[in-house]
Amino acid sequence: MKVVILILYFAVLVAIGIYCRKTATDVNGFVLGGRNVGPWLTAFAYGTSYFSAVIFVGYAGQFGWKFGIASTWIGLGNAAIGSLLAWIILGRRTRIMTQHLNSATMPQFFEKRFDSKALKIGASIIIFIFMIPYTASLYNGLSRLFGMAFNIDYSVCIVLMAILTAIYVIAGGYMATAINDFIQGLIMLVGIVAVIAAVLNAKGGLLMALDGLARVSDPAVSDTPGIFASFFGADPVGLFFVVILTSLGTWGLPQMVQKFYSINDEGSIRKGTIISTFFAIVVAGGCYFLGGFGRLFSDEIDIAADGFDSIIPTMLSRLHPGIIALVVILVLSASMSTLSSLVMTSASTLTLDFLKGTFIKEMSEKAQVRMIRALIVVFIAISSVIAMVQYKSNITFIAQLMGVSWGAMAGAFLAPFMYGLYSKKVTKASCAVCFIFGSVLMLANMLFRSAFPAILQSPINCGAFAMVAGLVIVPLVSLITKKPPKEEVDASFACYEQKRQIAQKTALGD
Q1: Is 240 within the bounds of a domain?
Q2: CATH number of the domain that 120 lies in?
Q3: In this predicted model, what pLDDT tens digit does every residue of 125-165 receive, in sequence order?
Q4: What is the CA radius of gyration of the chain?
Q5: What does the angle CA 183 – CA 290 – CA 207 come to, to the nearest 5 degrees?
Q6: pTM for this one?
Q7: What DSSP string runs through 62-120?
Q8: Which residues pair with 360 in a beta bridge?
Q9: Which of 77, 231, 288, 351 has the fewest CB neighbours in a 10 Å radius?
């Protein structure tokens, strides 16, 4: 039965990819869906790109074990900061200015907004360096779940997932990805609710589970009774850093921000804001809420031997086979949706921002689309090989590198991108300094972690620091560096002043 469900699921994904091939004939259609994607597809594409198997299996298990039920704050922070505020602050302005500047990627935005090809190339290099290990880490959450549910080799799972994702992304481009993300998002919504209900029911219901969690003690963490069932857990400072990294980080991640490029109208932005926030509350809040009960299964889990990735699979291992099948499809959906978003971003960035005009002077529309499709295959193949090497050799470094990747990209891009949408005073020098600071800081944290202050030795804390520091660096450096030409800046911001006729129900007249 589980195999039949998977086959049907895969068939639908491929069929949608083939169906959408007519929308993916040029760069605008292939990369942005013709900038004509509605609120439901955009909101679900944003949410499913946000929450992957790494969140469900890795982060939910690890932080649920560390913070207890207080880890739910991470999911709520993801909803409030990573979804609601991101849409409100970035959504409309991103859509307007990127269309005005005719930019399809984040590096293109930096080039045209600040009149700097060097910023475009620098941004594309940062994305290329940090996106591949992030992509490889997506596979890690699948190994134990597939082994538990199907007893098949992890390598087979990687190859199957890679081939199917490549087929529908290459065939249908962004529109196929968006439609499949919608389907995958529905599965995630239903799946997380069903899984939470099943796990809590196995422990006697919500109140019994909370009571059991309040009785758990761990002197190595805290001597306070009931700490794992408390409001802020044993480490509020550590919890705050996790919330900042996983929530504010989306504002600077190319694969997340690019979702705003394709939305079709004002109404879609308003609806998308609500839908995306609701999706995050249920999926992210649900994942971390579930992980908060991990210590109820401590008699079945050996963290020292099996690591934090074993927590969620252990919690699910004794559930009904139907629920386990749903979980496998849930995690597969989360992984494939994020994988498709990452490889689309990586391939389009490398083609449009690095190869075109730098190494290949003239590229027709068809040549650009062919190159993007070819690079999608390359990125998926490289990430698959890295994931298999990591699994076979038991190297944990790749999984840890996801935190470094988020910190580096968001630390480098968040402040320049956001300020670039709002302020005419931002200079190209401030952007370059922020690029260098964020990426170099996270590389140094990975290579020389012991040399950092204790609070910044964690990649999560260091990544959160990089993002917040960028918000200070950009305005300070802009104060002391050469201002951009007024006419160029005014030309970029002219899009916000264009007049549009709107219905009175939207805005009252004088």
Answers
A1: yes
A2: 1.20.1730.10
A3: 999 888 877 777 777 666 656 666 666 677 777 888 888 88
A4: 22
A5: 125
A6: 0.89
A7: HHHHHHGGGGHHHHHHIIIIIIIIHIIIIIHHHHHHHHHTT-SSHHHHHHHHHT-HHHH
A8: 356
A9: 231
